[in-house]
TrEMBL record:
Species annotation: Malus baccata (Siberian crab apple)
Alphabetized UniProt keyword annotations: TPR repeat
Domain named EF-hand: residues: 6-41
Pfam families on file: TPR_16, TPR_7
Protein name, per record: EF-hand domain-containing protein
Segments annotated as TPR repeats: 340-373, 374-407, 408-441
Protein's UniProt keywords contain Nuclease: no
Domain of life: Eukaryota
Membrane spanning stretches: none
One GO CC annotation: plasma membrane
GO molecular function: calcium ion binding
Matches recorded under InterPro entries: EF-hand-dom_pair, EF_hand_dom, TPR-like_helical_dom_sf, TPR_rpt
Amino acid sequence: MTTRGSRSEKVKRIFHQFDGNHDGGLNRDEMAALVVAVNPRVKFSNEQINAILDEVFRTYGDFIDGEKGLTYEGLLRTYDDGAGDVDRDFDALGLELTLDENKASMDSEASSSAIVDERVVESQKKQRTAAWAVSPNHGIVFDDTWKIVDDLEILVKRLKAKQGKDGKLKADNMDALSDAGWSRELGPSMEISEKRVFWEENGHDYALFVKELGVLRSRADGARSREQAFDGHMAIGRVLSEHQLFKEALVSFKRACELQPVDVRPHFRAGNCLYVLGRCNEAKDEFLLALEAAEGGGNQWAYLLPQIYVNLGIALEGEGMVMSACEYYREAAISCPTHFRALKLLGSALFGVGEYRAAVKALDEAIFMKPDYADAHCDLASALHAMGEDERAIATYQKAIDLKPGHVDALYNLGGLYMDSGRFPRASEMYTRVLAVWPNHWRAGKARNERILSGMDDTGSGRVDLGMFFAVLAPICSGSPEKRKRVAFDTLLWRPVNEGGGSQIRKADATKYMKLLRAIYVPSNGDSEMLELHGETDLSTMSFTEFLVMFDDPDWGFGIMSTLLKLETGDRNRHGNHVCSVCRYPIIGSRFKEVKSHFSLCNQCYSEGKVPPTSKQEEYKFREYGSEAEAMKDKCKCFTLQSHKAP
């Protein structure tokens, strides 16, 4: 970690490098030269440079010395606030500290430590915890909070040791998939790649931990001032977040929100916790509160807006409101032109709504800023494939895989592209690599499909028994349970082996059918029966009445039909009973309602520019709605699209 001494020396060297007239300040021209020099891979337009300079000079107005410009103290403050990375910028400029400067830095630290001996103790204490704790703007303020943090670290360490010993602590291989892109910290965009930890919350060890955690929260509440209580709860939440105890961290951040409702930080971090816990709608609300606080706080929080925009957009995507998410990603990219992650997310979202060319442009910009961004290469390849540029898409997928050999999304999508182009051996190779990285991933169900479909090929000819296949689909078709069972029976009766058989099917076929149903719809119980599908020799027959008895048997039939119907009903209710006016399928995810004609489209038909033939207009205006909430109140926007035509 860069020490404070060497950090200030580096900032001083950067400052003098660009203080061309040696007047002790960086004017707009000198500051512009600095911004361009430390971002050598970025091509700024004049408008972008002016926007950045306006923001800096407005935010750090207290450090502007008349016509001279930003002082050294002001530049140091920008780095302290996270607006730049000292080490990165220092290296980008090719600068080096001299021996005298290093010695002066060390002497300065030693001198200050000698003056006040307690500072050494505090420094050692702070080194035991995460870097955020000593941040000048987002770290710990009160000494009593350090004591709470030390005690909390002991509690977490004890819980980790007990659960690790019992085998309850689990980690998920999230590195294999595309990064969601959300920002945990309020500061510069950074790579976030770590394994997600899942704690076992049902047990004596965790219950004891929560009880002892409650004591620490009470200590924070009993602080001498509201500010100190806020500091305590924020620190507790930060420590818990670092250890991925998000459910408990959320409690602390919510309490901090109550103590200081207009502070950006607790709302932002509460939103992060809610997002990780899968509560996207609540996360969206917290990010909106953070945004409102940042916009109302003047220049104090201006530099934090890009991260808030990004996380708000991701929360909206989680709700299916992709178009609204695009607007916030775009705002993040405008307010911070070097935010490559915002550009990547914008490109991915544009791809999701069918704006392929715009998606390619945004993703190309993200890759220009960060050439080793594997996720951006993967999404760019998908957009290129959608535009029909398959050869370039293949090369781009391969680039993503070269950068990250275990990138499951890139491997799987490249396999799909090879399938579409008829290059089946190459597709098989990609799918095999997917299974090698992620054996239990749902996409590995290609392997399960092969086992199941082979059960419908008695002769080994490579042809599926269509009668049996349609009968397997019957339980999930529309209609009453009785109608579905009748369709299954009639389909089995329709099979060629039953020609001239009247109104009865073979008992062996019915038995095989029940085993297939269990293997497909209840795989945990049905896999062992797949080996028994072939070789049935019973030639006896059964009627529809006997078939119903076998079908409804809870142990040997398809006894989960009632559960299946409840799930279907819940799904229809969850999405508000809305049906797409073009494809007629129930709408899941975003719903786009035409303002004038009042018809609704699903995300797919909207992205393809389809409208019902009965509603022909010169121009269409759509309002986007999410799957859980009907609208985002005042945040919902209309989108005018002239390209929509009747299919």
